[in-house]
Amino acid sequence: MVKMQNNGKGPGTGGSKLRFLYDSRVRGWIAQTLVVLMLAFVLGYALYNISTNLSKAGITTGFGFLSEPAGFDISQTLIEYSSQSTYADALVVGILNTLLVSVLGIIFSSFFGFFLGVIRLSPNWLVSRMAAAYTEIIRNIPLLLQVLFWYLAILAPLPGPRQAFDFSGIIFLCNRGLQLPKPLLEQGFNITTITFAITFILSAILIYWSRYRQRQTGKRFPAYLVASALLVILPLISFTASGSPMHWEVPTLKGFNFAGGFTVLPELIALWLALTLYSATFIGEYVRSGIMAVDKGQTEAALALGYRPGLMYRLIIIPQAMRVVTPPLISQYLTLIKNSSLAVVIGYPELVHVFAGTALNQSGQAVEIITITMAAYLSISLVISFFMNWYNNNIALRGQEG
Amino acid sequence: MPNHWSAKTPQPSPDLSTGLIGWLRTNLFSSPSNTLLTIVGVAILYVTIPSFISWALINATWFGDSRAVCDEAAANGQTGACWAFINVRMGVFTYGFYPEMERWRINVMVLILAFNLTPILASTIFKNNSRQALLGLLGIALTFFIVGPVGSILMGAYFFLPLAFSTLSKIDTIVAPIGADARAIGFRLLGALLIGGGVYFITHSLISREIAATVGILMSFLMLCLVLIRSLSTMGWRWIMLFSAFPVLCFYMLLGGVLGLPPVETHFWGGLFLTLVVAGTGMATALPIGILLALGRRSELPVIKVVCISFIELVRGVPLVSVLFMASVMFPLFLPENVTFNKLLRALIGIAFFYAAYMAEVIRGGLQGIPKGQYEAAKALGWPYWKMMTVVILPQTLRLVIPGLANNFLSLLKDTTLVAVIGLLDLLGIAKAAMADSEWLGFTKESYVFAAIVFWVLCFAISRYSVHLEKKYHTSYH
């Protein structure tokens, strides 16, 4: 009791000098100083050791190595790259490959995940149970195991190029990957590209206009349908009108391998499949919980107004469910991008494999390379979460503070 | 016109809406699109399930000790799985390259862990001490049967100490509160010595004197430490021992090199055993660090807040693989040249700090879910920060975030497979290494399917248990 009364008088009024130590502000400052000192000590010690270790090993520090030739080849490059290119080029190749598999994974896992989430709530007993079983099986098995399974147990034992699975003579699947025909563009294809761009802008204006008109007059216009039809038809017309300036280069078997066309690496297929199938289970669960979070009265009201189930889902349930789904969806996408680094075990040339693996072994610049790798992932994460948060703020409920 | 109305006997429902047919009509064929879905579903099942069953069960080769068995079966047209491959390598899959003579040490630790976690996890069943004692006797018998006398003594000591402590600590004449006078401490010291001596007396007739002496000293020290804490339930003691005595015991038992146990370097560790070690250590270290980080993030002290936020956001923005790379490549550079740093320890540190950031975010969510009144009430009582947190806020928070913690633990368990990237052979690493055996080439599917089943069973059990906990502690403030 006595102690409490003293505390009540506030700091500095006690007789003893020790009272000073009971002031929470003083304690706060002491704690913070200690933390700063400790961090400074740990960092200083680590930096000191790094510099002595590196100078003993004869490694020069700094980012100068980025402009030196890398001296290794990469199996899949989205930009011009040869073994004469610099480490900086290798970094860009790695980042682009990471982004490629991530974007593919995000698109397909979103579709599949939404499908799973909706189908799990379907009144059809069999199909909803199947979706549940799929979800429970796939998400409880480590992703790395799935990547390795697809790569080593499914794709690696495929027959070689000579016995490749033949899909109507155009597409081939063998242990060297998926062989697809490659579009070869000729002079005059620019016209089609320009037409496409113009149509794209036109469609955007059309959609905006139809929204505006609906808000003003309540009249509906099938803007999305018309826009997508335009996007297909207009470029097609300009394509044929300009004399079809493109032909397909079909892969053909030459010697021991395919020539022509372009090859999708088996590593990419394995990683993409595993990422898509695995992430879809999580997305499916988020979608399911989002749909279940929409009040039942909304469904009943929609049905009472005579909405068909498809329209009801599209116009009433899904838009409201998206408010619940978006935040976990963002983090799932970010997780997918980070999970693409598992490619390192199967040798798909993404950021970690190319840069933190091969480039690190070649140059020995461990500190710089790990720092750059982490910084690259951090910036990708930050950019994506920025855009997704912007989208989330757009669809969030207004005027209801948490 | 009839004069009075009498109720008709109720008619049965139409045949088509009841029974099997009715069920089928409502659940499978209620509309054309539903019928289509059902047909597609049946088609998928028809394609996948029978072929998988015939591969995994009917046409499989189960027993045998060499490849010849499976080749022979394949030649006879039995093109199923070759489970003999798994059977032969079961020891490696479970223990890695831990020497066969020393595997009993792992078995003892697993049994001790299992029998001590059972009363903690199923606390409703093992509420009273007599049931726990029964479980303990069962554990001793089982350990004796599987491992032998040394193991069963360890098991018995570890299992019954909490019971003894809780009984002892309820007798006020023996155990005084913390900070009592020297006489009380001396009294406890005497008690601890007596117990240590007793343990020594029992063990020295079974194993070498040196081991017995160390066990006795350890026991008395443990006893002394634990009896200083006053008046805890048996379950409380079990928790305390799980986080204090068990890791120490594990360390010495598994690494060896003391008590006359031959040392086993960590590069012999592997298989399911290593997976469990990494997951268990990861969870046990990431959770406390995560709690500290979450508290730091919500702290009013600007420096601590900034440090915690930047650490959490930095770690959450990068993949675990890159953290493990950093741990394996950069940690040795952080230390003076002559200091060697165990590879497993590096991975454990990396995983602990990585998951601590995720734990911190989960716990922060829980902290935000605690009503403000709880904080204010604790402050109004004049409680200092740490007392408020440990007594009022954190117990409620941890209850709230059980699903999040379980999810994190699940991803931690699944992510232990990533230690293969830096060359440790966990269950998946062993499965992959097993395929490289020139005698057993080509059994990739068996290897991975087996590993997948093991992981699935572990993860599914944890997720079900978390659902159970969530229901048990369901506390809502809404």
Short description:
The complex is a heterodimer of chains A (402) and B (478). Chain A is an alpha+beta fold.
Descriptive overview:
The complex is a heterodimer of chains A (402) and B (478). Chain A is α+β, with helices and mostly antiparallel strands and 402 residues long. In chain A, 65% of the residues lie in helices and 7% in strands. In chain A, the strands form three sheets. Chain A has a four-stranded antiparallel β-sheet. In chain A, strands 4-5 form a two-stranded antiparallel ribbon. A two-stranded antiparallel ribbon of chain A has the order 6-7. In chain A, a hairpin with a 3-residue loop joins strand 1 and strand 2. Chain B has 478 residues and is mostly helical. Chain B is globular. About 1% of the residues of chain B have low confidence. Classes of the chains: A alpha+beta (402), B mainly alpha (478).
How much is the average pLDDT of chain A?
82
Q: What's the Cα radius of gyration of chain A?
A: 29 Å
- CATH architecture annotation of the domain at 87-141 and 275-395 in chain A: Orthogonal Bundle
CA distance, first residue to last residue of chain B: 60 Å
Number of H- or I-type helical stretches of chain B: 22
Write down the CATH class of the domain at 87-141 and 275-395 in chain A: Mainly Alpha
- The CATH homologous superfamily of the domain at 87-141 and 275-395 in chain A is named MetI-like
CATH architecture name of the largest domain in chain B? Orthogonal Bundle
Shape of chain B: globular
Please mark out the parts of chain A with pLDDT under 50 across 5 or more consecutive residues, or reply none: 1-15
Silhouette of chain A: globular
Secondary-structure element sequence of chain B?
HHHHHHHHHHHHHHHHHHHHHH
CATH class of the largest domain in chain B: Mainly Alpha
CATH topology of the domain at 87-141 and 275-395 in chain A: MetI-like fold
Largest sheet of chain A: 4 strands, antiparallel
The stretches of 5 or more residues of chain B where confidence is low (pLDDT under 50) are 173-179
What is the mean pLDDT of chain B? Answer: 80
